[in-house]
């Protein structure tokens, strides 16, 4: 939810269970079988804001929903007591579909929502926009709000094709009289069909994202290797290692770090990470703690980079192909 005031303050995980049951966050994190134990790293303040609800519903046998706290677009948004954006990122990284829900009476796009969309960069195909409570507005007002929503979101979602927007009132009660009931019902059905399609394609999507991540890992490994090789080439017996590497990190273009990756590999220039990110990366991870990729090969195990490239070019595409042909992967 996005608006001037928060609508919920907890992260609520709705999952399948034999009977209706509420589970405290500290219990969820302590139960290793539930796969929520990594959330302990966000602290006890966060776990107090985490709730699990088990519901005996057939749909939940195939999917788990996570309802995040509402986006707060006012000056008190810092008063959460836990790293909100980091927690959101944890769930984003594990999501197959991401719904961003707007209340037409509280349409407010501010800093916290902008931050969220920055976190969603690269996952635009998974985003669905929901304009809820649509039957609370007259037709002309609803059209105005719909247009204002697109106008506000356009700078945040920099893609050729904008995300699908669903307009309805998503609750089990009757729509308000004198509203577009047929349209709202069709929108609800379309949303359920969309969700079902994502569930059906879940395996393919997972493999595609694993491959996408592998490509990023490969590029990162090549860049670190290039930084390290440049450092070794520039070092002499009398050199100050810290000064030498600082010079490389401050101006990698002077040493053709990124250009050499483009020249010697099939990496796209659009996939290269931000140069500034490596200042922070090497600030935490000293260059001397790395080994060259050429030294990470063994007779029995092969080479680290070759394994990743084999997965990207052959193994993962073959796996996708086998699913497409209806074979058991």
UniProtKB/TrEMBL annotation:
GO cellular component term, pick one: sarcoplasmic reticulum membrane
Alphabetical keyword list: Glycoprotein, Membrane, Sarcoplasmic reticulum, Signal
Pfam family, one: Dynamin_N
PROSITE patterns registered for this protein in UniProt: G_DYNAMIN_2
Main location: other
Compartments where located: Sarcoplasmic reticulum lumen; Sarcoplasmic reticulum membrane
Domain Dynamin-type G residues, every copy: 1-208
Bilayer topology term: Peripheral membrane protein
The name this protein goes by in its record: Sarcalumenin
Gene from which the chain derives: Srl
Superkingdom of the source species: Eukaryota
Keyword match Signal: yes
CDD domains: EHD
């Amino acid at each position: 939810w996005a608006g001037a005031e928060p609508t919920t303050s907890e992260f609520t995980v709705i999952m399948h269970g034999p009977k209706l049951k509420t589970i405290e966050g500290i219990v969820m994190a302590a139960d290793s079988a539930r796969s929520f134990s990594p959330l302990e790293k966000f602290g006890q303040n966060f776990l107090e804001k985490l709730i699990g609800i088990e519901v005996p519903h057939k749909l939940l046998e195939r999917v788990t929903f996570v309802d995040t706290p509402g986006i707060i677009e006012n000056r008190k948004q810092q008063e959460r007591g836990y790293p909100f954006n980091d927690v959101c990122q944890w769930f984003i990284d594990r999501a197959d579909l991401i719904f961003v829900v707007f209340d037409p009476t509280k349409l407010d796009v501010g800093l916290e929502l902008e931050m969220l969309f920055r976190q969603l960069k690269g996952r635009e195909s998974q985003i669905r926009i929901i304009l809820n409570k649509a039957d609370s507005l007259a037709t002309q007002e609803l059209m105005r709000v719909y247009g204002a929503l697109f106008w506000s979101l356009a700078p945040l979602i920099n893609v050729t094709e904008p995300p699908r927007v669903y307009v309805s009132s998503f609750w089990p009660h009757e729509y308000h009289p004198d509203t577009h009931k047929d349209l709202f019902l069709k929108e609800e059905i379309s949303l359920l069909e969309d969700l079902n399609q994502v569930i059906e394609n879940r395996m393919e999507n997972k493999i595609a994202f694993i491959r996408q991540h592998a490509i990023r890992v490969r590029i990162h490994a090549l860049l670190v290797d290039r930084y390290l090789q440049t450092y070794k080439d520039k070092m002499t017996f009398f050199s100050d290692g810290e000064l030498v590497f600082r010079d490389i990190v401050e101006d990698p273009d002077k040493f053709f770090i990124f250009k050499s990756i483009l020249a010697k590999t099939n990496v796209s220039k659009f996939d290269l990470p931000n140069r500034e990110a490596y200042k922070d990366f090497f600030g935490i991870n000293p260059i001397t703690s790395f080994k060259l990729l050429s030294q990470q090969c063994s007779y029995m195990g092969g080479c680290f980079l070759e394994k990743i490239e084999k997965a990207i070019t052959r193994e993962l595409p073959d796996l996708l192909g086998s699913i497409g042909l209806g074979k058991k992967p």
